[in-house]
């Protein structure tokens, strides 16, 4: 479904990705783990078109995405719940969800918002509250809900567990698995919480200094002693 | 008391004009964080278009005042909107993502260019428009002082109110307004949500320019005399109004405009007309020192 071949990308003047090749197949949860600054977030942002890849090729369902603007890319069915959640702070929860529905022109809004509220009932209670006043966990739910409003075929999730209490982390990961299994939505998940991510992922890649240094199924990577030493010791 | 009321009305009229121009500054600043110093020239172009349109209408024999007002208003808004769009396209968009000062310098250049362009094409002399809307209400007073509210003042205040209602609706309740607010709060995220950010920014310039054109038309009708240099002072005043109200906030811009108009009118009325600009810019200094976020502005807080 999604193929990246030798993708380079710059974050400011720094070359954050140096020839990354990954693949995501329909229906999978693929995770990308790695240390801080390995280029994980840049990878997701490059898929979304900001920054644009400086070399290499990105294909989605066979179509080249290189050079397209972010709004074109989300229109093709790749939505992102980005790092730091980026909730519109002065907009209500409902308006944030309306923003998520921009790619569909709001045609399925009532139906889709109901689905989001069923998945995250907290959002229904808070629907008229301003985004900036939500707690971290609620913001993460809203962030994922907003991405779902675009009716994507591929969901990019960047650090959904960041800064959340363990119980909330579990809730969010459960929701990710449900979204994948019930809706058949393909998910590319970037995480520092490598243990949780590898547990739910079908496959994973390990990113270090802008390169893919290892790949395998979630279970393989979890069992790998190097991974355990580098990313999991004391992690979970 | 009648004197006070008279100054109040004059101040509101002036404030309506400042407010309409200030909105353009505030909206653009809200989205791309730059002060569009060429915005005052857009207002000036709106004023010139008004004179040109009235002359043309006079030549073809359209003399019914309400019709000509509406036609001039629409033409002026449409043409200045095109100017606003073009300025953004030529002078600012190519500089997006470069260092912060670059678009500011470009804006000053654009302002000088537009002044000279109008001076060259329209001549450096004053342009006068014979009064189009004549008369008004006069309220007598036992003490001998009368209050005059001219029809043009009523027209200006009413038009501003109508525009503000329409504009507030557009920002609060339409997909375009939502996209603009989203861009204002987080440009990157707006793009990730599927908003065509460049187009939204263009439309912001277009809307700001159209409102400035209305102010330009009002100024022409109110004062009757314009020249190629009026954009500078009006622009700086409106900028002051935008800062006073809290730059980035649209109701703030309108409120700041009204406050500034009232201060100027009362200062002129009770102290010295010659120093009214000192009062206006004195306020700018005081606001920047004691209330840097303005009346309705929000301090920029990064939430982690």
Secondary structure tally, helices of chain B: 11
Low-confidence stretches of chain A: none
Average pLDDT of chain B, to the nearest integer?
91
Strand content of chain A: 25-35%
Strand pairing plus helix content of chain B: what structural class?
mainly alpha
Helical residue percent band of chain B:
over 70%
Can you tell me about this structure?
The complex is a heterodimer of chains A (236) and B (304). Chain A is an alpha/beta fold. In chain A, 38% of the residues lie in helices and 27% in strands. Chain A is built from ten helices and ten strands. Chain A has helices at residues 40-47, 70-75, 93-100, 109-119, 121-125, 136-148, 166-183, 194-200, 218-223, 225-232, and strands at 2-11, 14-24, 29-34, 55-60, 63-64, 78-81, 154-158, 186-191, 203-208, 211-217. Chain A has a six-stranded mixed β-sheet, sandwiched between helices. In chain A, strands 2-1-4-5 form a four-stranded antiparallel β-sheet, covered by helices on one side. In chain A, a hairpin with a 2-residue loop joins strand 9 (203-208) and strand 10 (211-217). The longest helix of chain A has 18 residues, at 166-183. Chain A starts with a strand and ends with a helix. The termini of chain B are far apart. Chain B has helices spanning 2-32, 39-60, 65-92, 101-122, 151-173, 175-185, 187-192, 197-223, 230-245, 250-270, 276-290; strands at 127-128, 136-139, 147-150, 225-226. In chain B, strand 2 and strand 3 form a beta hairpin. The mean pLDDT of chain B is 91. Chain B is mostly helical and 304 residues long. A two-stranded antiparallel sheet of chain B has the order 1-4. A two-stranded antiparallel ribbon of chain B has the order 2-3. Chain B is 73% helix and 4% strand. Chain B has one domain (17-131, 163-290). The longest helix of chain B has 31 residues, at 2-32. Classes of the chains: A alpha/beta (236), B mainly alpha (304). The A-B interface holds A 48-50, 69-71, 74-75, 79-80, 82, 84, 86, 88-91, 95, 98-100, 102-103, 106, 132, 146, 150 and B 175, 178-179, 181-182, 185-186, 188-198, 303-304.
